[in-house]
Design goal:
With 322 residues, the protein is of the alpha/beta class. It contains ten helices and 13 strands. It folds into three domains: 63 residues, OB fold (Dihydrolipoamide Acetyltransferase, E2P); 174 residues, Rossmann fold (3-Layer(aba) Sandwich), CATH 3.40.50; 60 residues, Probable gtpase engc, domain 3 (Ribonucleotide Reductase Protein R1, domain 1, Orthogonal Bundle). Helix content is 27%, strand content 22%. The strands form two sheets. A five-stranded mixed β-barrel has the order 1-2-3-5-4. Strands 6-7 form a two-stranded antiparallel sheet. 37% of the residues are buried. It binds guanosine-5'-diphosphate, magnesium ion and zinc ion (ZN).
């Protein structure tokens, strides 16, 4: 029987929707038992963004093979857990949405997501959303945020789904790409996706009850094709301007298994100076001649990022043996 290739555009438990991109015509599929057993370390063998081979004797189609992944991101259910859940695969970028207030930002949480992206070599765009709510009242907090994250080497754009500010810039940054939207619940991921293309219908402002009760830990990750703004993409073009993946979870993605001495490599601003440390390996905490601490004292590395690093070092010691 003829095997064809499609992309997984939605994953809800053991059910999948596939589409032969760039054509957008999702159809249901299940996994052939053999494929199911292959990847034993992950709780889910297939994720949104995966390219798969399938056959269609009947409905649903049957996924027969998962093609090699260019990259992926995972979430572990707890720090102790050996089991990893693959969130999405073959990403061009992660759009990490944050809001300084409502809900108040937790920088260590953001830094963990950023570390995970660095580990998986996924380019990051930080979106500072809901600026309509706090930029006027807290301009110094906004400036500090830019200083910390642009200083670390990340691109930060300001957006408001309410005023539309920054949405064109976000749409441009997502064009011709597969982007995973991630970040804490309530920061506006689904709203941003809808702002980029108002014809899309992600669930806004709703946290499913099933999720709160912790039942559907693999609840649906969905990919959305979006239309570009004219005149970049002609109106009659059937090809989407790009693809966006919304994340349903209450959490972002968790920490991967890292050795203590590895963690600093995934803070780009530390990596840039760590070659000049007197000792190798250097934990950048107490060692004499530490270039990271020198950069911290010189204001080149921000105390906030350094604190997140210390937190990760400490947690690493708490949960795992060296
Ligand atoms: N004022 C304001 N509210 C926003 C903005 N973006 C999202 N919201 C609201 O924040 C709440 C959570 O948004 P949602 O998109 O569901 O967040 P998600 O959990 O990250 O997907 C909703 O009530 C949205 O209407 C924004 O830019 N400004
Ligand atoms: Mg949402
Ligand atoms: Zn050092």
């Amino acid at each position: 029987m003829e095997e064809r290739i499609a992309t997984v555009v939605m994953n809800a438990g053991s059910h999948y929707l596939l589409s032969e991109l760039p054509e957008w015509a999702p159809f249901p599929a299940v996994l052939r038992g053999k494929v199911r057993l292959q990847k034993s370390t992950a709780t889910n063998p297939v994720a949104v963004g995966d390219r798969v081979k399938f056959v269609t004797e009947d409905t649903p189609a049957v996924i027969t093979e998962i093609l090699p992944r260019r990259n992926y991101v995972i979430r572990k259910s707890t720090n102790l857990s050996r089991q990893a859940h693959i969130i999405a695969a073959n990403l061009d970028q992660a759009v990490i949405a944050v809001s300084l207030f409502f809900p108040e930002i937790k920088l260590p949480f953001l830094d963990r997501i950023l570390v995970t992206c660095e580990v998986y070599k996924i380019p990051v765009l930080i979106v500072l959303n809901k600026v309509d709510l706090y930029r006027e009242d807290a301009p110094e907090a906004v400036a500090a945020f830019h200083r910390i994250y642009e200083g670390a080497g990340y691109r930060v754009i300001e957006t408001s789904c309410k005023t539309g500010e920054g949405i064109d810039e976000l749409r441009d940054a997502c064009s011709s790409k597969l982007s995973l939207f991630s970040g804490e619940s309530g920061v506006g991921k689904s709203s941003l996706i809808k702002a980029v293309d108002p014809s899309l219908d992600p669930k806004i402002g709703k946290i499913s009850l099933a999720h709160l009760q912790g039942k559907h830990t693999t609840s649906s990750y969905a990919m959305y094709p979006f239309r570009g703004s004219a005149p970049k993409v002609p109106r009659d073009s059937s090809e989407p301007a790009g693809y966006l993946i919304d994340s349903p979870g209450l959490r972002g993605f968790g920490l991967v298994d890292l050795e203590k001495e590895e963690i600093a490599k995934y803070f780009p601003e530390m990596l840039r100076v760590a070659d000049d440390c007197r000792f190798t390996p250097c934990t950048h905490t107490h060692e004499p001649g530490c270039a990271v601490k020198a950069a911290l004292e010189a204001g080149i590395i921000s105390p906030e990022r350094y604190n997140s690093y210390l937190g990760m070092l400490e947690e690493d010691g708490k949960f795992r043996k060296g």
